[in-house]
Specification:
Blueprint lengths: L1 E5 L9 H11 L3 E4 L32 H9 L6 E4 L2 E2 L5 H14 L4 E6 L4 H6 L7 H17 L5 E2 L4 E2 L16 E3 L5 H10 L2 E2 L6 H18 L7 E5 L8 H10 L3 E5 L6 H15 L1
Parallel strand pairs: 1-2, 1-11, 2-3, 3-5, 4-5, 5-8, 8-9, 9-10, 10-11
Antiparallel strand pairs: 6-7
Length: about 290
């Protein structure tokens, strides 16, 4: 079982390079960076990670760009995988995103994991050019564009959201054929079918190991129906707050089918606090 860590806020008080290097030295498998380019002052839906009516966590509008942070981390680490948890795909230009990710994967010697999502905030998505009402359709097309740019010499594309003649976009990712695409998706049939149809793995926020096992069973069924090899799927569990921070939690998720668990570090904690937190997690989880 691999264990990764997610750092909600990376800044000068809690530098990503220092925290990720310490995590690597302790044996953590992956370092995960979140994504919110902006957060509107006013929006029309509740933050899904809390109780209805509660304000959003302050760290949501303090997040640094994840691809910049991961490139910074790549320069001071050698083995730890570099991951987005999650990148909001419909809120980014597909061509530019493909270029940045291929460059990051190349310069890190193939260590990037592409955790993706479609977002939950209508105003944020719209301001950044996404089609919120059809955000997973938009996401699917943007990912198709990226795959073409990563695997073909001079692809062209003609879709609803992307339309371009043959172009060349280099470097290509170091990983063949491209970094794994892990869908941060809820546990329902439509989301799980997306994973089976065009994803490389599932990265849910769940409440129990039984919920994970049920979702994996559905994905395997969808893969069998479409002829995909379900054994090649990545099953990662993303922890929110204090989730999955005991050895018992990790063992239960492993038995349910997870190959990776990502635990969240304390939002807003400073460098020395985070290093001490990592030290304690190492003693508790390994």
């Amino acid at each position: 079982m691999d264990i990764g860590i997610a750092q909600p806020v990376a800044n000068q008080d809690a530098p990503a390079d220092v925290i990720a290097k310490h995590a690597e030295d302790l044996g953590f498998e992956s370092y995960w960076a979140p994504d919110h380019t902006i957060l509107p002052v006013k929006y029309s839906v509740d933050y899904p990670g809390g109780r209805p009516g509660d304000p959003e966590p302050e760290y949501l509008w303090q997040i640094a760009d994840p691809l910049i942070m991961l490139a910074h981390v790549a320069g001071v680490t050698k083995t730890i995988k570099l991951a987005t948890g999650v990148l909001l795909v419909p809120e980014r230009d597909a061509i530019l995103c493909a270029k940045l990710i291929a460059s990051l994967d190349d310069c890190s010697n193939g260590r990037f994991l592409f955790g993706i999502g479609a977002g939950w905030n209508p105003e944020e998505c719209t301001i950044l050019g996404g089609d919120f009402e059809h955000r997973w359709t938009h996401t699917k097309e943007n990912i198709a564009v990226m795959k073409a740019l990563w695997t073909e010499h001079a692809p062209e594309f003609h879709g609803k959201y992307n339309d371009f003649p043959p172009i060349r976009c280099y470097p290509k990712p170091r990983q063949d054929p491209h970094p794994p695409i892990l869908l941060g998706a809820i546990n329902n049939a439509l989301s799980l079918k997306r994973v089976a149809d065009w994803g490389d793995g599932w990265m849910p926020v769940i409440q129990s190991a039984d919920e994970l096992a049920a979702g994996i069973k559905q994905i395997k069924g969808f893969c069998a129906a479409s002829g995909r090899d379900a054994s090649r799927m990545d099953y990662s569990v993303f922890g929110i707050g204090d989730q999955w921070k005991t050895k018992r939690d990790i063992e239960a998720l492993g038995k349910a089918g997870a190959n990776r668990v990502i635990v969240m570090l304390t939002p807003g904690a400073k460098k020395d606090q985070l290093k001490a937190e990592l030290d304690q997690l190492r003693k508790t989880l390994f």
